[in-house]
């Protein structure tokens, strides 16, 4: 009888241990799930922050690219403006040389009179100072 009671106690002890282990396992599982949920929230927050920074960087890069394109266009515009000024100056000089060599006062180039030369000169000066 003693042996039977002893075995019953051992069985009960083993059952209690099994219940405790199951409880601990369930508690550990709940704790792990809570940690997992917390980690998932942190990951989502980090991803959101990364996406925001990427958007800001893209916007900044697009702005810088736009500024670079604008600078390039301005350089090209300045270059073309200088070419136009040089061509206008060459035209004015050509008309002046042609007049000096011509026997009459009529110029056969674009400049047909002295007033045209003067207006071209004024146009050139106003063109230079307008930019």
Automatic annotation (TrEMBL):
One annotated GO molecular function: DNA-binding transcription factor activity
Cellular component GO terms held in the UniProt record: nucleus
Residue ranges constituting the K-box domain according to the UniProt record: 1-90
Entry annotated with the keyword Coiled coil: yes
Keywords: Coiled coil
InterPro entries found in the cross-reference section: TF_Kbox
Region (Disordered): 1-26
Coiled-coil residue windows: 63-90
Keyword Coiled coil applies: yes
Protein name, UniProt field: K-box domain-containing protein
Native source organism of the sequence: Adiantum capillus-veneris (Maidenhair fern)
């Amino acid at each position: 009888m003693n042996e039977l009671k002893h075995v019953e106690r051992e069985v009960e002890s083993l059952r209690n241990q099994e219940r405790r282990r199951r409880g601990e396992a369930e508690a550990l599982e709940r704790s792990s799930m809570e940690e997992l949920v917390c980690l998932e929230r942190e990951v989502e927050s980090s991803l959101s922050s990364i996406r925001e920074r990427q958007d800001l960087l893209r916007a900044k890069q697009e702005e810088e690219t736009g500024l670079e394109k604008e600078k390039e266009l301005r350089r090209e515009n300045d270059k073309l403006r200088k070419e136009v000024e040089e061509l206008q100056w060459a035209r004015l000089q050509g008309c002046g040389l042609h007049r000096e060599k011509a026997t009459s006062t009529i110029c056969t180039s674009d400049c047909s009179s002295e007033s045209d030369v003067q207006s071209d000169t004024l146009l050139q000066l106003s063109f230079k100072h307008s930019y």
